[in-house]
Specification:
The chain has one domain (3-137). It contains 5 helices and 5 strands. The chain has helices at residues 3-6, 11-14, 18-21, 79-87, 113-137, and strands spanning 27-28, 38-44, 48-54, 70-76, 109-110. A hairpin with a 3-residue loop joins strand 2 (38-44) and strand 3 (48-54). The longest helix is centred in the last third of the chain and has 25 residues, at 113-137. The protein starts with a helix and ends with a helix.
């Protein structure tokens, strides 16, 4: 089902930009039990995915009122996926990782959908490179 079907009656609240909906390789991963629509891709089948979460247009309607509208997060479901995230320096994307004090972490959210898409593409490239490096070492 599409985000419009999953969030029927709240479509205008989220108003997901076409630049995200139509991004090549992105799949609509929205689910009505989630807080907001999301779009993403599998980096490793069923074990590592990357998503852009699209919060409400109006900040007061967001789960995180102070947060930005678009957020990039990863879901890692096994040790191999976790290793890829760590190798790419992106373990913090899961929200389950506390970076060392003073560590500089990249900005992974944005109010501008164009910037959110750039962040997503950049992170995806890092994850794919880490995945390929891991595959080379296991051959």
């Amino acid at each position: 089902m599409s985000w419009r079907e999953e969030f029927a009656g709240r479509v205008e609240v989220f108003d997901v930009p076409e630049s995200i909906i139509r991004l090549e390789g992105l799949e609509d991963l929205s689910w009505h039990n989630d807080v907001c629509p999301s779009f993403g891709t599998q980096v490793i089948d069923d074990s590592l995915s990357l998503r852009i979460w699209c919060q409400a247009v109006v900040p007061d309607d967001r789960e995180y009122v102070a947060g930005k509208r678009f957020m990039v997060f990863a879901d890692a479901w096994d040790d191999d996926a976790w290793d890829i995230l760590q190798a790419a320096g992106l373990a913090h994307l899961t929200g389950e990782f506390e970076p060392a004090e003073g560590a500089v972490m990249p900005e992974l959210d944005a109010d501008d959908p164009t910037i959110a898409v750039r962040i997503f593409i950049t992170v995806l490239a890092h994850l794919q490179a880490a995945k390929q490096a891991a595959e080379r070492t296991t051959r």
